[in-house]
Design brief:
single chain, about 70 residues, alpha+beta, Alpha-Beta Plaits, three-stranded antiparallel beta sheet, 2 helices, about 20% helix, binds iron/sulfur cluster
């Protein structure tokens, strides 16, 4: 089971690709230049969290998959 549940607010995503650079096996830009999750376990959990923190608009929301607790943004 993935450690994190990942959500992306497509309305906030500005398509700069920072998350995709940080965790390329987890995030990609779709044809509309909006980030999407390809594999919630594509990169190590700490890398996924760093990718979320790299987002300039805090469009990536990370939850603990087990408890449902919101991890990021704080
Ligand atoms: S870092 Fe944020 S704004 Fe940039 S592509 Fe990823 S989700 Fe979109």
């Amino acid at each position: 089971m993935a450690k994190y549940k990942i959500e992306i607010d497509g309305d906030l995503c500005v398509g700069d690709g920072a998350c995709c650079e940080e965790a390329p096996n987890t995030f990609v830009l779709d044809e509309d230049e909006v980030a999407t999750v390809t594999d919630p376990e594509g990169d190590p959990p700490e890398t996924i969290l760093e990718a979320a923190k790299s987002c300039p608009t805090e469009a990536i929301i990370i939850y603990d998959a087990e408890t449902g607790e919101k991890i990021w943004p704080e």
